[in-house]
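Please, is this right?
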Amino acid sequence: MNWLYAFDLFGVAVFAITGALMAGRKSMDLFGVLVIAIITALGGGTLRDVILDNHPVSWIGNDWYILVAVVAAVGTVIWVRFTRPIHETGLLVADAFGLAVFTVIGTQVALQHDVPVSAAVIMGVMTGVAGGVMRDIVCNEIPLIFHKEIYATACIVGSLVYILLRYLDMPPNLDIAIAILTVLSIRLAAIRWHLALPRFHLLDRERPPADDQ
């Protein structure tokens, strides 16, 4: 099995777990858990493939993607129900790894379709974060990428690094590894030191008193 493909399946499992946990926080039934888990794990790649007209969509041509997502979701339900909650720090680290892998794979797929650099970066970021955005919207939450530590920014940097290394004819496995480590390092640093982009606070200016009539 190709090592990048194995990492891809690991990313699917991790994102499915985060989706299952979100569904649990919303007290959904098992069907709801599975739906949210699959949306989280496969939503980004599906949207990428549809936009790029890349058919068949990755999980349609390979049963392992759905199988891994379902097993991860059901396993999460069983683990939490009969043992103890999953440690959030460990999950964040695993999520960061999945984010890094998905970003590089998304960028790689886009470049195979000869799209411009800007589109390749967007496709890489989309692959990494769109599933989580869909999950949060369906669950009536503000998407994670809009109000937490640096997340999508790490994807942008990692995608650009991968494209640059490809342009410099870096050996294939080495450029993938360096790009994955770039996203992973930035995301883990953001988690460790709570790094975030500046926030935009819109404050209402005090209105002047109305003139006496």
